[in-house]
Amino acid sequence: MGVVLRQSIKGTIVTYTGAFIGFVNTLFIFTHFLTPEEIGLQRIIIEAGMMLATLSQLGVPNLGVRFFPHFKSADGKNNGFLLYLIFLPLLGMLFFFTLFILLKAPVSTYFAENSELFVNYYYYILPLAVAIVYQAIFSTYANVLMRIVVPRFITEIGVRVFLLVGVLLYSFDMINLNGFVLSIVLTYLLAAIINFIYLFTIGKVSFKRTKGFVTAKMRKEMILYSLYLLAAVLMSILSLKIDVFMVSAKIGLASTAIYSIAYYMAVIIEMPSRSTISIISPIISNSIKENNWKDVKDNYRKVSSLQYFMGIMIFILLWINVDNIFHFIPNGEFYEEGKYVILFIGLGKLVEMLFSMSGTILSYSSKYRYTLLFTFFYGVMIISTNNWLIPIYGVTGAALATFGSIFVFRLVYIFFVWGTLKVHPFSWSHLSMTGLLMLCIGINFLLPTLENVYLDAAMRSVIVLGTFCLIAYFGKICLDANNIFDAMVKKLMKRKD
């Protein structure tokens, strides 16, 4: 866990710096300078680009992590592995881009009534998807080399800064709406180029294949794995993004803006897990390759415990101040409709942080084919529940559908992994953290509401979050969190000396 902790801490610092920039962008700048329809347009274009890119990748990011241990070499050229990562998505883009063009008419009909503006920029999604594909590919290659910080910086900070520039140029009439949408495409293209340049700077770029290295057996295994991942990704990406698209189509881009802003606030909860998953995935893959299931179990439990602890801490801070946050946001009374989106999506993210490693472990094991079955189950469930609940409860219905689907899906998933691979994350630590979460929410409920929102936010944060931290530390609920805190204190003490 030493490497994981060090890389995760560095990655988390970058991630939260980016999150802060994104927080300011989304909640204060975008809501001030853009109309709700323009915010909704930006969000749905990015989500559509992400969806098309993820399909076109043919599962290459996961394939890269799974098979890199087989290609890794002492000379750093890794038997031309990067060439395979670059070439395979070209096949995916050829197929899915053609399909995307052919589906323009039915997609336009679906969105025309409530989100016609999105239809006008349909073809901008193609170059955006290309940029997102290779941004992800180059980041994946850096990740398997255990160099996550710079790619994370580009993704979490660089992209947000570039998006902000586009918004400001549009807001001050330096570009029109077409230029604004084009700036989104250029943002991700620039991120991909910078990621590629970074690989050159660390001297890890080689396009030279080793003849005969990829045997017929390995090629067959890679193709089968990619096809299974493609099918799983097809359902996964639809299920993960379907809420945004269904909100846009059923109740309009303004509602998409409400949902997206609330969703963004809730997503902050999972930020620590992004760096952790990036660095732990190659380690898990290598342990499974070496049949070292003891390391898999130990890492699974520790990562789950640390992620859950950090997620709860952020969830508490966010939820106890949710009313104050909407007071600070420009036009906050309009976006306040998303309050319970934050609650349900936030709870869903906590479930993901608790159990998400089960998916990583299954996808890198010999049982990876079952991921398709589970993802199909999840896709059907979330599409059905969104279709049912959005017309009744609006954006809150979309969030409730997402939370319910995540909870049921992850619960079934975890017990399957436990039954087949004999690994699970459960410990008394998780139960203690859940109890502490409920205690803190109860304390917040009992606190009086102060008229001054700044004082109210400060009071709640100090009392509730302070209670959580003190009980968690002295009760030793999460030992890895205690170790991180102790190490930070020691470093500060040394600097003072």
In short:
The chain has 497 residues and is mainly alpha-helical. It is built from 22 helices and no strands.
**Describe the biggest sheet?**
none
Structural class: mainly alpha
Low-confidence stretches: none
What is the number of domains?
A: 1
Helical residue percent band: over 70%
Shape: globular
Strand content: under 5%
Count of β-strands: 0
Question: How would you describe the overall organization of this protein?
Answer:
By secondary structure, this protein is mainly alpha-helical. The protein has one domain (2-496). It has 22 helices and no strands. The two termini are 29 Å apart.
Task: For the structure shown, list the relevant keywords.
497 residues; mainly alpha; 22 helices
Present the secondary structure layout.
Blueprint: H1 2-33, H2 36-56, H3 60-71, H4 81-102, H5 104-112, H6 116-120, H7 125-144, H8 149-171, H9 177-201, H10 216-251, H11 253-267, H12 271-289, H13 293-320, H14 322-328, H15 332-335, H16 339-355, H17 357-364, H18 370-393, H19 395-421, H20 428-446, H21 453-474, H22 479-496
Helix pairs in contact: 1-8, 1-12, 2-4, 2-7, 2-10, 2-11, 3-4, 3-7, 3-10, 3-12, 4-7, 7-9, 8-9, 10-11, 10-18, 10-19, 11-16, 11-19, 12-13, 12-17, 13-16, 13-20, 13-21, 16-19, 17-19, 18-19, 20-21
